[in-house]
Amino acid sequence: MDRISGGVVICLATAILWQARSLPLGKISAPGPGFFPTVIAMVLLVLALLLILTGAGKKEKTIFTDKRAAGRVLLVFLFLVAYILLLEYLGFAVTSFLFMAALFITVTQRKWYSALLWSFAATGFAYVLFEILLKSNLPKGVLGF
Amino acid sequence: MADLLQNIYLGFSVTFIPLNLLFCFIGVLLGTLIGVLPGIGPAATIALLLPITFSMQPETALIMIAGIYYGAQYGGSTTSILVNIPGEASCVVTCLDGYQMARRGRAGAALGIAAFGSFLGGTASVIGLMLLGPLLARYALAFGPPEYFALMLMGIILLTFLSSGSMIKSLISAGVGLFVGTIGLDTIYGMQRFTHGSLTLMDGVGLVPVAMGLFGIAEVLANLEGEEARDIFKTKITGLLPNRQDWREAIWPIFRGAFIGFFLGILPGGGVIMASFTSYAVEKRIAKNPAAFGQGAIAGVAGPETANNAATGGAMIPLLSLGIPANVIMALLIGAMMIHGIQPSPFLVTEHPRVFWGVVTSMYVGNALLLVLNLPMIPLWVRLLKAPYGILFPLILLFCLIGVYTLNSNTHEILIMLIFGVLGYLMRKTGFEPAPLVFAMVIGPIMETTLRQSLLYSRGNFSIFFQRPISAVIISLCMLLLLVSAIPRLSGKREAIVGEASEE
Fold first, then answer.
1. CB contact, 8 Å: B236 with chain A?
2. What distance in Å separates the CA atoms of residue B140 and residue B474, rounded to the nearest whole number?
């Protein structure tokens, strides 16, 4: 596992170096905008190599042991993505209600009426707190609310 | 002395403004609540509430955030004692004897002594903060960019040194944080870096979405995997007041705990957890009957509980007097300060006396509030503990989503939160600590600026960091720490010190 994460860090560091090429490095007596990111990327490279070296002999543990649990995590992640995509289109109230209902029904497996009730209560609570008490400007959807 | 009294008077006059008192109350109440609730910690809560503090006076905002921080320590000890689940990492040791006491029908006394110990520890640390803070700040006037850079570097190295798990991984986490901190406009020339023309990224990656992602979303995702069984006591809690015998056994551990906690809290990097562990180890070592520890010794509850609260006060010293965050919560506090246009610096005490003294005295008032409020409310907290996670986690997610959106009415901020949520989840799975990332991200820009200023000043000569006495000492300490962790035999000791903390 350490080797994989080390590899990911190396990719990240290389990407930073690649991106930082366009930034002026400056001189050592007057470092430019590219100086600090380049230094960080090099430090990351060294650390990643160390990680790979020290992790080479270790026993590997699989991290996703429970398939059903991993499925739950993926499902929640997809709902979160859907929330972002729908928020400005459907508006805060509808999206939040759907999001909560989806979580309650699929992930926690409530009965549909209890799920709807809880979703309604949660959305209402959030609406009162953010829209009325904190006066934040929550997005309205195509339906006008 | 007259100065001090005048400052304390100023502090209390700020604290006792009804609005500040109200938010102090809200802070400690929320803190206790999330300390009790599973799956949400003070870091996520503070990140969640940062947007709300935008419209407040800076002192009000900081008073509330500080309240959440030490309130969570209270709540965390309650769950440690009653269900053997530490609400916060710093309450891990409280489980050892607190839970045993509860099993023997002495839950009341354990909760009571934890509350009193916390109050006394908090009080002692506030007094220490009052005395030491301005002193340190005066000393800090000799600080230039090289000293600052050295201090920030030490902050990162200490935090990674003390964090549980592999130090290399923690350093990588910090490195990624430093990189995230460079996204946006360059601090000196105002040049765009890594923005790809995105308007959202031009302001830099926001602290709130990152912290909410790493601590809020990631925490929820990780908790979804395991369903922990919560074995809650059915017995009624009676006799919250410890009896005379309890006091006799607990009073010295409380004194020692306050002392240990305060001084370990000052150290940058996770002082609170260290404090409670050290206090427990000390009490066990000097006890007449060490075998009683782990079997429900009241000293094993009183000492660490006092120490972790004393450490919260100690942790405020480097923050308020030098502008250096001692841990991730303090890093969030700095984030809140910068939002209000207060730069963390040694001049904070002189430039913003209302903020410094107001926050300090509010901690005193907050500790008293916690004691008065929480003793009678323990049954309520116990009932809340039974709140099913199936209802809690969708709510946490919804609040994170809406909270981040309301920052700038921008869905891109939610996207950033989600990215860091997934990153945080994967980091948890692979053994990377998220705290150094956030910490490094906050201090990154200051580090970069001071490094570049130092090099400008010395005309590119790195020896500037060794020619100036203060920075030379700090840099040598950093190197020593790195060296210690690189030598296998010694690094085993490091793991022995901090390893227990990760056994949650």
1. no
2. 14
Q: Which residues of B69-108 are buried (b: 16+ CB within 10 A; e: fewer)?
A: bbbbbbbbbbbbbbbbbbbbbbbbbbbbbbbbbbeeebbb
Question: Are B172 and A104 in contact (CB < 8 Å)?
Answer: no
- Alpha-carbon span B385 to B371, nearest angstrom: 20
As for how many domains chain B has, the answer is: 1
Rg (CA), chain A: 24
Gyration radius (Cα) of chain B, Å:
22
Minimal C-alpha gap between B274 and chain A (Å) = 26
**Which among B52, B188, B221 has the least Cβ separation from residue A73?**
B221
What is the distance in angstroms between the Cα of B131 and the nearest Cα belonging to chain A? 38
Distance from CA of B394 to the nearest CA of A (A): 6
CA-based nearest residue in chain B for residue A68 = B225
The answer to whether the beta carbons of residues B460 and A29 sit under 8 Å apart is yes
In which element (H, E) is residue A107 found? none
Q: Scanning every residue of chain B, which has its alpha carbon at the shortest distance from the alpha carbon of A82? A: B415
For chain B, 504 residues long, give each residue's pLDDT as a single digit of tens: 667 778 888 888 888 888 888 989 988 888 888 877 766 777 878 887 777 777 788 888 888 888 888 888 778 788 778 777 776 667 778 888 888 888 777 878 888 888 888 888 888 888 887 787 777 777 767 778 888 888 888 878 877 876 667 888 889 999 999 999 999 888 778 788 888 877 778 878 888 889 888 888 888 888 887 655 455 555 556 666 777 888 888 888 888 888 888 888 877 655 677 788 888 888 888 877 777 877 778 888 888 888 888 888 788 777 777 767 767 777 788 778 877 878 767 677 777 888 888 888 888 888 888 888 777 777 777 777 666 777 788 888 888 888 888 877 888 889 999 999 999 999 988 888 888 898 888 888 888 988 988 988 888 788 888 888 888 988 998 888 888 877 765 555 555 555 444 433
- Domain membership of residue B237 (yes or no) is no
Q: Check CB contact under 8 Å for A23 and B455.
A: no
User: Does the interface ipTM go beyond 0.85?
Assistant: yes
Instruction: Give contacts of A48 with chain B, Cβ < 8 Å.
Output: 172
pTM of the model: 0.82
Query: In chain A, which among 81-100 make CB contacts under 8 A with chain B?
Result: 81, 83-84, 87-88, 92, 96, 99-100
Q: How far is A92 from chain B (nearest CA, A)?
A: 8
B208: CB partners within 8 A, 6+ apart? B47, B50, B51, B335, B403, B404, B407, B413
User: Quick one: which H or E segment has residue A57?
Assistant: none
Residue extents of the structural domains in chain A: 2-55, 67-133
CB proximity under 8 Å: A 58-77 to B: 63-64, 66, 69-70, 72-73, 76-77
